[in-house]
Structures are given as structure tokens and as C-alpha cells.
Design brief:
Oligomer: single chain
Strand order of the largest sheet: 3-4-2-5-1-6-7-8
CATH class: Alpha Beta
Bound molecules: adenosine-5'-diphosphate, magnesium ion
Radius of gyration: 18 Å
Structural class: alpha/beta
């Protein structure tokens, strides 16, 4: 049903954007759950792919993995099979609608917590094979305050923090950034405000959180953009179809597409630390 060989071919042969490129590692996270990370990650990945970038979406939400559910593509293999050394990295890459390459979380990430040295070696070794095959490795993480998510953030090149205009979501996003700071990580954050009722609400939310981050954490938090509150998101979820495929012209899909456009235009927030560096930092944070 899901042709793994095809997934691999797609990765290897997908459009080159000129020269050897390194892999940019981006985590998408939030303080509070249910703010729209997975929907954002999925449609952001598709929007980057539409622009010719090779993207691999990695579902890294511990215990709440659901990218395959959002896509209506039940995953034959997932992270669990990799951690158990039953499958290689290439075998667990699934090919979703629109040709999107993704790795389903399954229950795998629960086991990450208890990985032995040898298992962690295998895991990082397999991830390292992705080098040069993808332009963006996008991790959809769980809501922030777990150790595993904090490790991903600490190791990634950039972290997109998703919040909604609700005060609870904003304060939790702030708490997340504060924790990352306290871990001594120099994470490069960017902000997405999801479910805004209008430009004005989005702007106010962004100003608010950026100012607090600046004042109390001395943290720059560049705004990537807003995504409107839009009933199409829930409808797409119920149809188990990516929003940008089901309703490409709806306000939320257009919002995310605009964010992807801005994102690839913007200067990287941090120098690319490459996949090898990511894995080294993961290992360090794990020990
Ligand atoms: N822009 C939006 N407009 C309206 N509803 C949204 C939007 N983004 C997310 N939602 C709603 O929030 C729910 C949770 O989104 P999800 O991406 O699964 O959140 P998370 O991954 O942060 O837990 C979605 O199923 C949808 O109903
Ligand atoms: Mg999610």
C-alpha cells in the first residue's frame, strides 16, 4: 500500500535547489497543547514542498502522535520500529498525500525516554543518513514542558513557537521559552500566532509576547506570521485530509502558505548547525 521504495526515490530525486545543501532542523512547539501545532506543521511542510524544498515531517509528539491520522494515511511503520532496530530510517518514511514524506510517531517516543546507549546510537546513526537528502527536517513536537521536547528544541537550528491569542496559551509559551533558557540552550525562536480573529488581534498578541520575552528573557522573538481562526481546519481534520489539499484557498491555508513564503525569504535565525551537530547535541542533552 505505502511504497517505501517510492518514498526513498522521491527523497533522493526530488528537486535539487542547486549545490549540496545541508539539512535545516526546525522544531514546531508550543507551551500549551491543542494550539494547532500539528496542523501548522503539516501544512507548513506541504507549503515548503510546493516551493521545491525537500521536506521530511517527523512526528515527535510523545504519546499523542497524530500526523498519520491528520493525513488519513495509516502508517505501516513508525518510530517504534526504528527504535527497536526492526526497520531502517528509509523503511519508516511514509509517503503521504501530495507526496509528503513523513515519519509517524506511533508509540515510539515513549520509548525514547528509556533508550539504552546502543539504541540511541542506532537511532542517531539512522537519522544521520538523512543528511543531504532533505532540506528541512521538521519536528512536530508535543506541547513544551516535557524533557524530550526540550531536548529537541535544544538540538534544533530553529524553533517555531505556536501560540493562540488566549492568555493561557501565551503564558505557557513564555514558560516554555523560559525553561529552554534555564537549560542554557541558545535556541533561536520564531513566533506563529494561530487562530487570530483578525490582523489586529494577531498583532496585539505578538507584540505582547515579544515584549515579555524581550524584557524578562532578553530573547528576540521574530514574528513569522498569523493564521486566521478558520472552521476549515476542523473540517479538514474530520476529513483526514491536509487543509492545504482539502481547502487550498481557505484563509488558514493561505495564512500558512504566506508564512512559508516569508520563512524561506527570511534570513536564517541561526547559522545552520547541520544534522551532525544536531545529533551531537541530542546525545549531549540525553546523557
Ligand atoms: N487556524 C485554526 N482555525 C480553527 N481551528 C483550528 C486552527 N488551528 C487548529 N485548530 C483546531 O485545533 C485543533 C487542534 O489542532 P492540532 O494541530 O492538533 O493542535 P496541537 O498539535 O497543538 O495539539 C484542530 O483539530 C482544529 O480543530
Ligand atoms: Mg499535535
Amino acid at each position: 500500500m505505502h511504497d517505501q521504495a517510492e518514498a526513498l526515490r522521491h527523497l533522493v530525486h526530488s528537486r535539487e535547489l542547486g549545490g549540496a545543501r545541508s539539512t535545516r532542523i526546525v522544531t514546531v512547539t508550543s507551551g500549551k497543547g491543542g494550539v494547532g501545532k500539528s496542523n501548522f506543521s503539516l501544512n507548513f511542510a506541504l507549503a515548503l514542498q510546493n516551493r521545491g524544498y525537500r521536506v521530511l515531517l517527523f512526528d515527535a509528539d510523545i504519546g499523542m502522535a497524530n500526523i498519520d491520522v491528520l493525513l488519513g494515511t495509516p502508517a505501516k511503520y513508525n518510530l517504534f520500529h526504528l527504535l527497536k532496530r526492526e526497520k531502517s530510517i528509509w523503511e519508516i518514511i511514509q509517503s503521504g498525500p501530495g507526496g509528503l514524506q513523513f515519519i509517524a510517531g506511533g508509540s515510539g517516543f515513549r520509548d525514547l525516554i528509556r533508550l539504552s546507549e546502543a539504541e540511541l546510537d542506532y537511532f542517531t546513526g539512522e537519522i544521520a543518513k538523512l543528511h543531504g537528502h532533505v532540506d528541512f527536517l521538521l519536528f512536530d513536537t508535543g506541547a513544551g514542558l516535557s524533557k524530550e521536547t526540550l531536548r529537541f528544541i535544544g538540538a534544533a537550528d530553529e524553533t517555531i513557537v505556536v501560540t493562540t491569542p488566549e492568555p493561557t496559551s501565551i503564558t505557557d509559551a513564555y514558560a516554555l521559552m523560559k525553561m529552554v533558557r534555564q537549560m542554557g540552550q541558545d535556541a533561536a525562536f520564531r513566533l506563529v500566532v494561530n487562530r487570530v480573529e483578525g490582523e489586529r488581534e494577531g498583532r496585539q498578541t505578538a507584540d505582547n509576547i515579544r515584549q515579555v520575552a524581550q524584557t524578562y528573557l532578553q530573547l528576540e522573538l521574530p514574528l513569522l506570521g498569523f493564521v486566521p481562526d478558520d472552521g476549515h481546519v476542523s473540517r479538514a481534520v474530520k476529513r483526514q485530509t491536509a487543509l492545504s489539499i482539502a481547502y487550498p484557498d481557505c484563509p488558514a491555508a493561505r495564512g500558512i502558505d504566506g508564512i512559508a513564503a516569508a520563512y524561506v525569504r527570511a534570513e536564517p535565525r541561526a547559522p545552520e548547525r547541520n544534522l551532525k551537530g544536531f545529533l551531537q547535541r541530542m546525545r549531549k542533552l540525553w546523557s
